TrEMBL record:
Protein name: Helix-turn-helix protein
GO cellular component: cytosol
Ribonucleoprotein recorded as keyword: no
Entry keyword set: DNA-binding
Keyword DNA-binding: yes
Pfam families: HTH_3
Length: 70
């Protein structure tokens, strides 16, 4: 997973790190670590929390917005 995808969707929804962390029930520092690609292997539970908080699919978080283009 690329942390820039989380950041892209977070900023698209005009959410702060704190807002998204609260929605996903994770710490701000851990979310920041993910966005900076310092942990490229978050578990399925975390991906599910983030995708639900951002209202996007897990695939969107993993592959980014361009994966839907044909």
């Amino acid at each position: 997973m690329n942390g820039k995808n989380i950041k892209f969707y977070r900023q698209k929804d005009q959410l702060s790190l704190s807002d998204l962390a609260q929605r996903a029930n994770i710490s701000v520092s851990y979310l920041s670590t993910l966005e900076k690609n310092k942990n490229a292997n978050p578990g399925l539970l975390l991906l599910t929390k983030l995708s639900e908080a951002l209202k996007v699919s897990i695939e969107d978080l993993i592959y980014g917005p361009s994966h839907r283009r044909i």
